[in-house]
Amino acid sequence: MEFNIALVKGDGIGPEIVSGAVQVLEKIGEKFGHTFRFTEYLAGGCAIDACGVPLPEETVQGCRNSDSVLLGAVGGPKWDGLPGDVRPEKALLGLRSALGLYTNLRPAKLYSALAGECPLRPDIVAKGFDLMMVRELTGGIYFGERGRREGKYGPEAYDTEAYSVMEIERIARVAFEAARKRNKKVHSIDKANVLETSRLWRETVHRIAEEYPDVECVDMLVDNTAMQLVRNPSQFDVVVTTNMFGDILSDEASQITGSIGLLPSASLGATTCGMYEPIHGSAPDIAGQDKANPIATILSAAMMLRYSFSLLEEAACIEKAVDAVLDAGWRTADIIGSSTDRPLRGSEMTQKILEQI
Ligand code: NAD
């Protein structure tokens, strides 16, 4: 099969980690007889430098016309002083919106080889965990009306959260479908004791749950969820929530796995064209030093094969190769834990994974 992939390398370590994932995809192409064609587009700080805007129209069109998008990371101190609407991060929101990507999938699993990295108590680590965060991505407070005004106590700022029934229904269905392929349990996270949007969320999720009698549906308040993720993460299978709650909880879930350098993500919409990226940022502190762990981006490429191209065997081949390399004790600097670990540079980690494939 043939696929056109838009590469948005971005800033900082973006070019290094995307290069690792491209090599892995090329190897998979050779092994399984597929052709992946790559076209590069600018977004983020590098686009601001080259074209004056974080998300050039050419990038939007190129990504729209591709079969999927592989993104590194955007941003860095060089652009931190710019106003909100021209900052590099604006490119991410813009791309998600332009491609209609309303779902963010973030698996967070504890690798047994890296259990020592997990910051939780040993008895909690012993139970293990493997959860899938399903975050609504194009609605809620990040896209609501905002501004500054004169208030009761002088100047004030406001952001508003709105959710339609349609937006909640479609994300709830993604979560229940995902749970059907996993352990058949959905935790729906809200703040229904305070927020009206959360009450609509809960009502709507319950209605969709009736279509999935084989999946257990549990409501949990967001503050309790923040605690439960560190007390007993093994209770979760699929967790579905709003844009802002998902942003915060998925970072918490990533931290308890022990390394953000390992975690991939997928952003999906109504078509098969998705956007795949590591959950970490552009790590300007280590950019250009060959220290960046490419695994999160390589696993993002595996998610692309699974969710956009339906190449399940090929995706599993990448995931198994990563498992094997970690089981053998190979580590980049961010995940070195014990004296028996075998240190590697970022590009060497990619080579180890290629050898396993
Ligand atoms: P970060 O994720 O870039 O880095 C946090 C820490 O983790 C740093 O010490 C970094 O060296 C380390 N790290 C991150 N990825 C790593 C990897 N693959 N291998 C080894 N170590 C890794 O978060 P930050 O420092 O808060 O943000 C830096 C920049 O990235 C900011 O400009 C921020 O806005 C941007 N950012 C972008 C995205 C994105 O593009 N999706 C996401 C988050 C942050």
Could you give a short description of this structure?
The chain has 357 residues and is an alpha/beta fold. The protein contains twelve helices and 14 strands.
Outline the structure in words.
The chain contains twelve helices and 14 strands. With 357 residues, the chain is an alpha/beta fold. Strands 2-1-3-12-11-4-5-10-8-9 form a ten-stranded mixed sheet, with helices on both faces. It has a two-stranded antiparallel sheet with strand order 6-7. Helix 6 (165-180) crosses helix 7 (196-209). The longest helix is centred in the N-terminal third of the chain and has 19 residues, at 14-32. It starts with a strand and ends with a helix. The structure holds nicotinamide-adenine-dinucleotide (NAD). Nicotinamide-adenine-dinucleotide binds at residues 13, 17, 73-76, 89, 92, 260-261, 277, 280-286, 292-293, 296, 334.
Number of helices: 12
Distance between the termini: 19 Å
- Identify the overall geometry: globular
Radius of gyration: 20 Å
Round the mean pLDDT to the nearest integer and report it: 95
Q: Secondary-structure element sequence?
A: EHEHHEHEHEEEHEHEHEHEEHHEEH
Give the bound compounds.
nicotinamide-adenine-dinucleotide
Summarize the main sheet. Answer: 10 strands, mixed
Tally the beta strands. 14
Helix/strand-derived class? alpha/beta
**Order of strands across the widest beta sheet?**
2-1-3-12-11-4-5-10-8-9
Give the amount of beta strand, in percent. 15-25%
The helical percent reads 40-55%
